[in-house]
Amino acid sequence: MTEVVTNTAPPLRDEAAVAATAAATASGVHVRTLAEVADLTAVTRLFESIWRPAPGNQPVTPELLRAMVSAGNYVAGAFDGPDLLGACFGFFGGPAKGGLHSHIAGVATAGHGRGIGFALKLHQRAWALRQDVRVISWTFDPLVRRNAHFNLTKLAARPEQYLPDFYGPMHDGINGAGDTDRLMAVWDLASPSVRAAAEGRPARLDAAALRKQGAAVALAAGPDGAPVTGPADAPVVLVAVPPDIEALRLADPGRGRAWRVALREALGGLLAGGASVAGFDRAGWYVIAKEQS
Question: Which SUPFAM superfamilies does the UniProt entry name for this protein (predicted)?
Answer without folding.
Answer: Acyl-CoA N-acyltransferases (Nat)
